[in-house]
Amino acid sequence: MRELIDRLAQEHTLTQQEFIDLLENRDAALDEYLFQRAAAVRQEVFGKQVYLRGLIEFTNYCKNDCYYCGIRRSNREAQRYRLGEGEILACCREGYGLGFRTFVLQGGEDPYFTTARMCALVETIKREFPDCAVTLSIGERPREDYQAMFDAGADRYLLRHETADDAHYRLLHPADMSLENRKRCLWDLKAIGYQVGCGMMVGSPGQTAAHLAEDLLFIRELEPQMVGIGPFIPQHSTPFAVKPAGTLEMTLFLLGLLRLMLPRLLLPATTALGTIHPQGRELGILAGANVCMPNLSPVSVRKKYALYDNKICTGDESAQCRGCLEARLASIGYEAVVGRGDHPDFI
Ligand code: 5AD
Ligand code: FES
């Protein structure tokens, strides 16, 4: 298996069967080998720097009904909230003071936040913070809408593809959603000029090594600037409440593979990874990740953005995720940096 990892580092891709072999035969020794190679590649491109983004979860209303997600529209238990423009700007001001130069506006697919409202919001943020990047993560929209928000000043867009396999996509989503449209969105975002992020959950119900290999090949083809991956974690009031969670080990392994496949990738150590293991995010960095996205949302709403159970950084202690993460990164020899943290191709 080591020769496959060597070849991935050299050629930046493998066949689907080779990816499957790696995923099905990984063990602790192979993990170590992969993480060392991935860390060396990341060191060459980014040194010991880890980029921070201030995450603002500004609405948990959602018109979609994805079976895995705690803020799906059918979840009557979800306590819905939506931040006003003033509250969002207050989060940005606080974040700016803490050193954040990227704000990630993430929300459910909330019809209240029309493209006109989003454009106005982006323009206001960019006017007050011209040295900051704005990342949007608000789901599927028509191409013209993506274009309008880009013209309003949005720099980046996160939209996980969730799975690159059509049948698996249909197992995770109701019939009114399609992988085809998800991919169309991602290609449109790329063509418009956004720095684009896709990604998938690791260990989602029904997922096989072949599905993950398809994910890797789709990512290879799309060549996004960012990839967000984290373990699937069940949420108690969804149809997948009793499904097993994804594992730390498989998530870390995929982070390592992604680093070798796309050396300049912006790759976050996600909150879900930090949720399934107390040192999940630190281990993610050591496996090849180079981004952390601490929560900047008002503490009063954080528990309500409950995509999955036991999410970290939602209690009173989390008012200061910035300092917490800085200390965590320092403890493993990494440095949280102030700056936009653009993909190297966009500097
Ligand atoms: N476990 C882990 N990740 C989840 N997401 C949604 N629900 C869950 C869950 N139960 C992820 C999806 C989505 C992102 C915002 O959060 O991948 O794209
Ligand atoms: Fe949020 Fe540590 S990063 S509490």
User: What percentage of the residues does DSSP assign to strands (E)?
Assistant: 5-15%
**Poorly predicted spans:** none
Main pleated sheet = 6 strands, parallel
- Overall SS class: alpha/beta
Tally of DSSP helical segments: 14
Mean pLDDT: 97
* Helical amount: 40-55%
**N-to-C series of helices and strands:** HHHEEHEHEHEHHEEHEEHHHEHHE
Name the ligand types. Answer: 5'-deoxyadenosine, FE2/S2 (inorganic) cluster
Any idea what the shape is? globular
Count all strands and give the number.
11
Radius of gyration: 19 Å
Strand order of the largest sheet: 2-3-4-5-6-8
The CA-CA distance between the termini, in Å, is: 36 Å
Structure description:
- Helix 2 packs across helix 9 (209-222) and helix 6 packs parallel to helix 8 (179-192).
- The longest helix has 19 residues, at 28-46.
- The chain has helices at residues 2-11, 16-25, 28-46, 85-97, 115-128, 143-151, 166-172, 179-192, 209-222, 248-261, 271-276, 280-287, 299-302, 321-331, and strands spanning 49-52, 54-59, 102-107, 133-137, 156-158, 195-198, 201-202, 226-227, 230-231, 291-292, 335-337.
- It has 14 helices and eleven strands.
- The model has no long low-confidence stretch (mean pLDDT 97).
- It is α/β, with parallel strands linked by helices and 347 residues long.
- Strands 2-3-4-5-6-8 form a six-stranded parallel β-sheet, with helices on one face. The protein has a three-stranded parallel β-sheet with strand order 10-1-11, covered by helices on one side. It has a two-stranded parallel sheet with strand order 7-9.
- FE2/S2 (inorganic) cluster binds next to helix 14.
- Residues 294, 313, 318, 321, 324-325 line the site of FE2/S2 (inorganic) cluster.
